[in-house]
Amino acid sequence: MERRKFIRNIGLGAAATLISKKAVSNELNNLKRIKMENLQKPEFPSLPYPYDGLEPYMDAQTVEIHYDRHHRGYYNNFIKAIEGTPYENMPIEKIFTEVSKAGNAIRNNGGGFYNHVLWWYSLGKGSSKPSAGLSEAINKAFGSFDKFREALGTAAKTQFGSGWGWLYMTPDKNLAVGSTSNQDNPLMDISPIKGIPLLPFDVWEHAYYLKYQNKRADFIDNLWNIINWDEINKRYQQALA
What percent of the chain lies above the pLDDT cut of 90? Predict the structure, then answer.
């Protein structure tokens, strides 16, 4: 396939830039939500910050290995799994709605590819905070931001084995938190929680073990220092549409 630059919508409310490394610096502040119809296979997305860009809360070696080996591996295996199948040119969120029929290779690697795009763009250092609209929705759903933080933290910390904690929007447009195993996500028809993912917490050991060893709770607590709320605010607004 000839490589070409494009921006591809990746999940109904979770806009992520899937572009070449050369263009990424110009696009990071201009994320767009574009339908995936008529677009071919995605390119592997550039990381939106240097490997040490999340220090001291996430170390550079972890980011490099996680992104360039684990995430890239999911991407490569996802592309291989969909080649020559009806899923090859299908929007990824459409695949997720029938992923129980697609087989484990597409389920695991498609989820791993998608979830990690959301993950990297959910993180960043700066002074962003939840928007007024998102803050209101959080207070409505959880009572306060502190209670929300506790609820999502608990979902992530208590997920048994590998998986993800999620803030997501339910089909009735309310906020909720929950967790999924392995590389499943709330868009999948086999997921125990259903909705549009807004903020993921990766609790696979490769996300934190080099720095935190078995102290998953410390890792989760430190993530609150590097949430890119500007991106989460955009996802929230798009999920409402």
Answer: 80
SS3 177: strand
103-137 pLDDT, tens per residue? 999 999 999 999 999 999 999 987 789 999 999 99
Domains and CATH numbers, the chain: 1-20+59-241 (3.55.40.20)
Write down the pLDDT at residue 41.
58
Residue that has been written with the tokens 């919508």 in this structure: 9
Pick left, alpha or beta for residue 188 (phi over 0 → left; psi -120 to 50 → alpha; otherwise beta). beta
Bond prior to 200 in cis (omega within 30° of 0): no
Please count the CA atoms within 13 angstroms of the CA of 195 that sit on its side-chain side. 25
Judging by DSSP bridges, how do beta strands 196-202 and 175-181 pair with one another?
unpaired
SS3 category, 196: strand
222 and 211 in contact (C-beta within 8 Å)? no
Q: Which pTM was predicted? A: 0.84
Largest interatomic CA distance in the chain: 50
173-211: b (≥16 Cβ within 10 Å) or e: eebbbbbbebbbbbbbeebebebbbbbbbbbbeebbebb
